[in-house]
Amino acid sequence: MSVFTGWRAALRIARRDALRAKGRSALVVAMIALPVLGVTAADITYRSADLSPAEQLTAEIGSADALYSDAGLGPIHQMPDGDMYDRASGKEPSEAPKPVDMRSVFPKGVRAISEQSVSATVTTSYGIASTEIIELRTSDRMVRGRIDLVGGAFPQATGELVATEAFLESAGLHVGSDVEVTTSGKKYTITGAVELPADLSAKALYAEPGAVIAPWAALAEHDKKVPAPQPGETRWLVEGAGDAGIVWQDVLAANKAGALVTSRQVFENPPPDSEVPLLRSNPQYAVDRSYASDETDAALITVVAMALLEVVLLAGPAFAVGARRSRRQLGLLGTCGGDRSQVRAVVLGGGVVLGGVGAVAGVVTGLVLTTVFRPMIEGWAGHRFGSLALHPADLLVIAVLGLVTGLLAAFAPAIVAGRQSVLESLTGRRGVRRSSRVLPITGACVLAVGVLVAVYGGTSGNSALVAGGSVVAELGLLACIPVIVGLLGRLGRRFPLSPRMALRDAARNRGRTAPAVAAVMAAVAGSVAIATYMSSSQAESDYDYMPMLTEGTISLSAGDAEAAERLPAARSAVEHNMAVTGGRADISRVWAGSDCNVYYEDESGCGSMTLVKPTGKGHTCPLAGKGAKELAARLSADEHRAMMRTPACVDVRFSVSTFSSDSNNIVVGDAALLDTYVKLRDPAAAAALKAGTPVLLNEAYAENGEVTLKAVHRYSPKDTKNRKLHPGKARKTTDRLKVYVAKPEYATTPGIRMILPQRTAERLGLYTQPYGSVYAVSHQPTDAENQRTSATIDQAGGGLWVQSNSGPNDRGSTILLILTLFAGVVTVGAAAITTGLAKADAEADLTTLSAVGAPPRVRRSLSGFQCLVVALTGVLLGTAAGLVPSVALRLVDLRQAMEQMREQPMESAYTPIVLPWATIGLLAVAVPLLAGGLAAAFTRSRVALARRAG
Predict the structure, then answer these.
(1) What is the CB-side half-sphere exposure of residue 112 using CA atoms within 13 A?
(2) Which are the contacts of 150, defined by CB distance < 8 A and separation ≥ 6?
(3) 525-552: pLDDT as tens digits
(4) What is the DSSP letter of 678?
(5) What DSSP element (H or E) covers 60?
(6) Side-chain half-sphere of 700: how many Cα atoms within 13 Å?
């Protein structure tokens, strides 16, 4: 019999055996298909979401042949793709270049449409909102691909607009709603909803050219109370006269006039470098700016490898149980003359059959699900896919990997089945084999070596060593799992019947339990590693984030003295529409001489004020002066962080001016400001303000309890009233003020360094003006609350605005949730599979259990605890394994941060390691309990008694 004939028979036997055991076969197919499905969906999504250069060009210029814009530099030279350009002369011109007359630059016979945007406030269903209005003929075919209609119709008249879906949602509007541009008073009807395929979150309105800016400008020209529009530069979408489009010669001609051109024809057929003038003066631009991320490729390979490893670990026991259930059939094969290789071929044939079915099913299902959920995936990605990128080679490789995975999963059971004697197979005896002591000892050594390599890679800044050491450590831990599972059996004596039986069953059947625990460990380790790294990076980002206001507060600010008169009405609007808690604190700004906010045109036409910072220890930041690099070289990351948080250094690198236009951050306020905004609830500080003593929040500016305030009382000739009262040269004053010094932690208060009482400011000859108010709020304002408040303020005359903290980016929370769900699903699945295999493998034992009078609930609780044991053990081991690469990678980041800090001592070296306790808690507590509960719920309590086999 030839090799092919033998394998044909083996495959036929395997196929029939798969059809007889449909439940077990479906389980194996599902285990193989699920990772194949995930990899297929990830491959299609990754390639589809990565827009090609041609698709990116369409997102910029639509279906037009070219986009023309004024570079504002005079004659220029540009790269063919338009990304880089420079003055043709290479020198700064003596006078500003004149605007380019684009119509004279266009090639003959072309068709062009203009595009110009302007910022404006429009009415909404809640109030008013600020947005961009773009004048562009959206119905033109040149715009297709850049702006697409999703509902209604394009505007056909000057009184019509279309809006992006994101704007309609935030404004509470819909197709058919009317909006009014508040500055011009002109009303428009929204006739359609559009989307920008390249930016689904864009909030904008689109009007016909001349529909918004021109009437607004005309009104502003006749009515000086109406602010004039400030439109952006005009750009032009151009369609060529023939099929040639806009060629390189047309681009060069436009460059001579000062126009920058992005041409589709030039992009697709770039000229040789010798014909690009910019490369003659800047040859470095010829370097290919495209790059491939080796880290991304390595990450993808790791994900695929871990998915396949989990399949082998999960499907392997299923094949082992199948071989054990079919041992009589395999024994009969031996009695008929079949040798060990043919027995192995039958088991491996099962891997080929089920692996092939699972691979095909996974690829097809992955493709279908990606197609079905494409809109949702695009919404999460923030842009539309150019097309659904299907690469047959990728899909074929994924399918082959699924098939190979099935073979690998059946390999170990095939070896075991081939070693069994015919007598053991026919009688059903399993035999007794002691577990190897070499494997766990080797695994422990490999685990230790892997951890040491990963930690060394982290401290030396070598990411490759971190990755390699982490993989080696996880492989070592995998080798130790059988021993760990065996030790669980010794814990059973301390538990009641069901958990005791579950622990001992897991210990006796390590060949079934250990791979499932390993699969859970692998999934949880990856999720915990990524979650830990992301949580740590997010904590670092939160530390670097510089808020404009203290947490839980908002501010109401007036733009000028006229707007300040409308503060009472604006305060009522805020208190009525915002989630204000408690009272408010009013703030006034203070200055010397003429107000620089008014007389800013002449640098010497207004006064100045300086809060002098003393020198010496406790006053001068040692990281910003002489010897800073030498000091930084001696500091650890924690020591550097502590020094950066001291009052002497806290405002050297960054200082936000929320309530003033200068860097002194001196405001006029009372005790309410301490309680509402500063969160300084000290009766002594409130009493000091009441007595006229300033409160200093940064102690580095105080010396012996006093501060030095210098002022230059300079008056502008245009400030006729004050200039008449203060003729002559500018007067300079230096005042020493006794202050209340707050504790060091208040030095980080955003926007305020010192609070000056009103009467003290008057005594020093300074001027004050109400600036606004601050409020404590229960949550940050929503779009609806902002729009309602803005509408009320606008009705009162405008000129005021509400400011709130945007907060650090929290998108990582979504990814953490996805990782947790992924690890949870794999954990529940692996535990459920192991429980099902245990039930199938120990059916005779369960029948005996029922026969001796065990209550029906014991069978149900036993299944639940079997599932719980696998899930909990795998999660705990996976959490420990996942911490190794994440901690090591953070050590790499720490090394890089320390190197940067020693070069630039004011740069932060804070690199925290933050454990994602929410993710770990869900995986370690909720997921195992869920797995055990589901196993107990779906297990039948009563079974019909059957005759014992053998």
Answers:
(1) 21
(2) 165, 193, 194, 195
(3) 777 887 888 888 888 888 888 888 998 8
(4) I
(5) helix 53-61
(6) 25
